[in-house]
Amino acid sequence: MLDILKSYFRHAAKYYPKPDDAGETTYFSQVGVDFLIRSAKALQGLQPTSSLFSQHENLLKSLATSLQVLHDDLAVHPPPDYLFFASLLYLRWPLFYGWDKESIKTDAGRDLILAILRYHAHVTRLRTDIEEGFYNTHGFTFERDWPYFVEHAKELGVVLPPPAVQLLKDPLPLEDAQVQEERCSPSGDAVLEVRVDPLGKRALRDNASAHSWLTMDRDGATA
Question: Cβ distance 186 to 173 under 8 Å?
């Protein structure tokens, strides 16, 4: 069973079906969905001490890597939507119904769940023909299942990291800045000191010269 599953996913990583393939090939039909579900159920009972459990871990790692690499290299490859749906279908049984979830509670399982979450978050639009002609052919509905997938992933502690927070959203207005650069200017560039009085006027002075302060209004006019 595991060898057949490995062969299936090796093909899935390179499979970009044509829309008219729906229902015409083993991979793009209810037969493929049924195979994934039956495989997931059969392998759910693997014990962590068995050699098959380790082989299954390698399969999950390979899936996570393939999904991430193909997604990051869209300039060369089309979006791997089929691999996304196939991976999601395979994890659906142990994640939704596996009471102990031993087969996916490992680092490899979590990595695959995270790869699926990232793909869904970053993809512009999933292929509806694969969703309708593949995922939804076994009585499942992707639109209904996806929120459950996200919630069950959270139960395992797998969530998408928040987007990078921009530390300084808006640049500080010049009139609010108190700038004092280095006084040493070997290149001969002017070193300016900026001050702002309570009325909002800016005062500038070249510290390398003996010039007095030059006061400016907010609109730049000298005063």
Answer: no
The tokens of 170 are what? 């808006």
Taking 70 as the pLDDT cut, the residues of the chain under it are: 74-76, 163-223
Q: How many helices (H) and strands (E) does the chain have?
A: 7, 3
Residues 6+ apart with CB under 8 A from 204: 192, 193, 194, 195, 213, 214, 216
- What pLDDT, on the 0 to 100 scale, is given for residue 186? 52
Determine contact, residues 129/135, Cβ cutoff 8 Å. no
Q: How far apart are CA 157 and CA 149, in angstroms?
A: 12
- Where in the chain are the domains? 2-155, 174-216
Residues in the chain: 223
Query: Do 80 and 113 form a contact (C-beta atoms < 8 A)?
Result: no
What's the rounded Cα separation, in Å, for the pair 95 and 172? 48
